């Protein structure tokens, strides 16, 4: 390539950094193996196998960590990057293509973070998390927070230690947030969440004062669990989730995990007397699954083959679950099928009643079963509690009381026990502090992206009404999935929608949708 | 401890070699992870995930291999062992206790073998085997040997290479045999197998000339597959297989795998029109599973926590399957339960008829479904073919013809296609040359051990008749399972039965059992 002035410009490509990506690939394979061990722990592992499994997972994670911080990687990175600042050293007459530039930026991000954590700390944290997760499951079953408390203390002290290792400007919690959502901080999230809260709380009040009473009793009749699973599978197939490269299994908590774009697994749970649980968790996890199946296999093992952030990941699951899965268009097509599957239970419920029932707003104890509106209030209380725990303002033993008070404050209801209160979520048991806020980010991004899809895909709602979901899947793959970590979350949002994260689309969407369902008059 | 002469004798224990066992433990955890990846590949992995999985498994196996041959392990071993000869260096005034002595002997065995194989060879072999296994499955489905041939060639050339690396005296095949059955050679097996054949072939002839015609048609009626699985599970529980530390799943080929004594998994397969397949593979794999669950958890990661050889392992599965599971005593208790499970199909068949039906001798195409007698003839033809392949006397492309000719020679029948002929077994696809002979060794050991159990456990047959199988399980655990690799296979046989492997108990057992069933007159 010739540049003005007559010099020859050498373009550096992924080929240039092949020594580096080969090593990253090995590390990714170890991480994928560890991910399978975790998937198995949640799905099929016999109970007796837990302790040995914790050690196996932590051994693999320790090895992966050691390999990432090895002098080998350091040497290969140092050839192109200033190891202090992470700045690329562009030599005159040289240029990097965009994939390689992004790759080096992101590898340096991973490397420099990993480098701050001693390998034995990584092994200890992994083992303690794996064990705590099992104790949490027992404690939740027994609805006994005290059982889980010693493990929670251990995890908390390790996570505070981790924040110290990683470093931060304002709060140790920022160091943890950044792991899940690159660039996010308390300072950025607080006003954003305040803005959301300022619009959601009055909306919720109006809904609660509305004379419209939605009857969703039909959704809690008896539904054969096998048929529920079959229907979940059918919807996943319609979404374009590829069962040749995926599976649907049962687990206590629905989740998605990926070992490679050719092996991406989702789980669900199914309750005889709750039609929504299996159905919407299939759609939700399917959204996650499509993202992971849509990553570019050629980049597997590198950041370009990895999802960009949890917030963006959650935007995919929430878009499918809510913007699509709780829309009129979607159910115009799928409700007759659902009725045929459960004629006795749903025969008397017409499509409009069903649409209202699945969109009923009602403050409830369990986050994952919350409606679109109150869901974010669940997140906000966790966001506050997490900060207080990590910053040391709250004693872990006081958690159940604090939880219950905040539930009353935010949602006007009080859990009757720990299982439906502070013990309901698995996250803290595996050390995921700073994870919850990404759920609300996902909600906000989901509508911002979906409205862009509506603008760009001709007659999208018509297609959805006809059960044709593939065009949306393709759009998401082209616009978001296949890019991996090529762009930062913010850059990606700008590329796709022309602007950074903006809560307005989400807020207008819920005000319009629920205003109509609950026949609310203008403010 | 004081020894004659007044010197103080220092006894070295496992504590002395703790640095070594800590490293072994890490390696075992990696191997256990790889084993889970393989289990998943055979049970739940979506088809698209195969290529990535092959790479993940080979990455882990490569790392485990590298760690085993690391200078670290070498240094730790060299402190106690002459690295050339493997002889222990006993310093005067020192003594090792038996566990430590055995541990060092066996670690040296593993280490010195691994040391002979370059790490990149291990990775290549692992990847090629994992891929070949998937191609074999497709080829078998299509009953098309040509599809599998290229992979078989690759595997064969790698296995010959492996034999060269490992070294041998008489035949490269000996180097491969020794991996599965320490100490076994063609020279030792050939006369043993000849002796077995010399007694089995005339016995088979007499049976085929017998006027007794056994009608087993009832076993091939329609049996609900879920009920079959439930019955298999019931028998496993009665055997003492612990479902808190294990699982039963479906796979194309039944197998047992262990990630730790607290997580040992068996698989089976189930056919609607064949009652025996699921039933006896559950009992068979259950025998393997009891061995792995019976290993001492304290020794996990060291050879003392590992099974001693495939022949001994198979003795456990065959003992449960045949000595117990095809005995009158066992079915006195379990047949009424089986009849209740399938009243329509089995109502008219009395216990004695059922006993005869499950012991019907009939040359058949498929090894795993063969009766106790003809089973060993299946092994012998594989033993001969393997030698010829490894020693280069046979071209892989000629295999189907050779297979069919030998089937006719040994069993008087000829497969109609590759699927029921040369493609029936998975073993060669994952590089397991030298594995098949251990099945016959297992058959011989099983009766030798079982007759010892009958001598030592008071009223064993009575107990089995009452459905009480636990005492046998405990005896096996005490006598065999818990010792791991403390003793060599031969030493173990001598400890348990007072003598080395002896085909006589097996031969007398089948002559007596089938003589009675087929009402054969004395020779």
Give a quick summary of the entry.
Chain A is mainly alpha-helical. Helix content of chain A is 60%, strand content 4%.
Q: How would you characterize this protein structure?
A:
The structure is a homodimer of 523-residue chains. By secondary structure, the first copy, chain A, is mainly alpha-helical. Chain A has 21 helices and 5 strands. The first copy, chain A, folds into 2 domains: 160 residues, no CATH class; 332 residues, Neurolysin, domain 3. Helix content of chain A is 60%, strand content 4%. In chain A, the strands form 2 sheets. In chain A, strands 3-5-4 form a 3-stranded mixed sheet. In chain A, strands 1-2 form a two-stranded parallel ribbon. In chain A, helix 8 packs parallel to helix 21, helix 9 runs parallel beside helix 10 and helix 12 crosses helix 14. The mean pLDDT of chain A is 95. At the A-B interface, helix 1, helix 2 and strand 3 of A face helix 1, helix 2 and strand 3 of B.
């Amino acid at each position: 390539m010739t540049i003005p002035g007559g010099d020859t410009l050498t373009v550096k490509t992924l080929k240039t950094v092949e020594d580096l990506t080969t090593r990253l690939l090995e590390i990714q394979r170890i991480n994928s193996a560890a991910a399978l061990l975790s998937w198995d722990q949640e799905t099929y592992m016999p109970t007796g196998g837990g302790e040995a499994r914790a050690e196996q997972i932590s051994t693999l994670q320790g090895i992966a960590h050691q390999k990432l911080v090895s002098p080998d990687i350091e040497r290969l990175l140092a050839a192109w990057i200033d190891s202090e600042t992470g700045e690329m050293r562009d030599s005159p007459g040289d240029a990097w293509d965009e994939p390689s530039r992004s790759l080096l930026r992101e590898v340096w991000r991973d490397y420099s973070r990993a480098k701050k954590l001693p390998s034995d700390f990584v092994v200890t944290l992994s083992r303690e998390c794996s064990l705590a997760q099992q104790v949490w499951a027992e404690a939740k079953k027994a609805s006994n927070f005290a059982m889980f408390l010693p493990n929670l203390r251990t995890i908390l002290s390790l996570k505070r230690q981790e924040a110290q290792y990683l470093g931060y400007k304002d709060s140790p919690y920022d160091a943890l947030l950044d792991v899940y959502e690159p660039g996010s901080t308390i300072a950025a999230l607080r006003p954003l969440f305040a803005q959301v809260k300022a619009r959601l709380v009055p909306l919720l009040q109006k809904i609660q004062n509305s004379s419209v009473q939605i009857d969703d009793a039909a959704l809690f009749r008896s539904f054969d669990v096998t048929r529920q699973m079959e229907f979940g599978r059918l919807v996943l197939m319609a979404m374009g989730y590829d069962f040749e490269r995926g599976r649907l299994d049962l687990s206590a908590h629905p989740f998605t995990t990926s070992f490679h774009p050719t092996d991406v697994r989702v789980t669900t749970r199914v309750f005889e007397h709750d039609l929504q649980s299996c159905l919407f968790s299939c759609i939700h996890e399917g959204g996650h699954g499509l993202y992971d199946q849509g990553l570019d296999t050629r980049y597997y093992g590198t950041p370009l083959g990895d999802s960009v952030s949890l917030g963006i990941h959650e935007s995919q699951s929430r878009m499918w679950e809510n913007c699509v899965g709780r829309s009129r268009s979607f159910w115009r097509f799928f409700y007759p099928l659902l009725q045929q599957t459960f004629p006795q239970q749903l025969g008397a419920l017409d499509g409009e009643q069903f649409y209202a029932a699945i969109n009923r707003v009602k403050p409830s104890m369990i986050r994952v079963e919350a409606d679109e509106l109150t869901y974010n209030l669940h997140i906000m209380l966790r966001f506050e509690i997490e900060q207080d725990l990590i910053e040391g303002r709250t004693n872990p033993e006081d958690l159940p009381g604090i939880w219950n008070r905040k539930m009353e404050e935010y949602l006007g209801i009080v859990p009757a026990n720990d299982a439906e209160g502070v013990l309901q979520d698995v996250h803290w048991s595996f050390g995921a502090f700073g994870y919850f806020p990404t759920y609300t980010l996902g909600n906000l991004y989901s509508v911002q992206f979906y409205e862009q899809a509506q603008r760009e895909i001709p007659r999208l709602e018509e297609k959805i009404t006809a059960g044709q979901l593939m065009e949306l899947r393709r759009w998401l793959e082209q616009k978001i999935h296949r890019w991996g970590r090529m762009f930062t979350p913010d850059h990606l949002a700008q590329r796709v929608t022309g602007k950074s994260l903006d809560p307005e689309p989400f807020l207008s969407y819920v005000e319009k949708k629920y205003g109509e369902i609950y026949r609310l008059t203008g403010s």
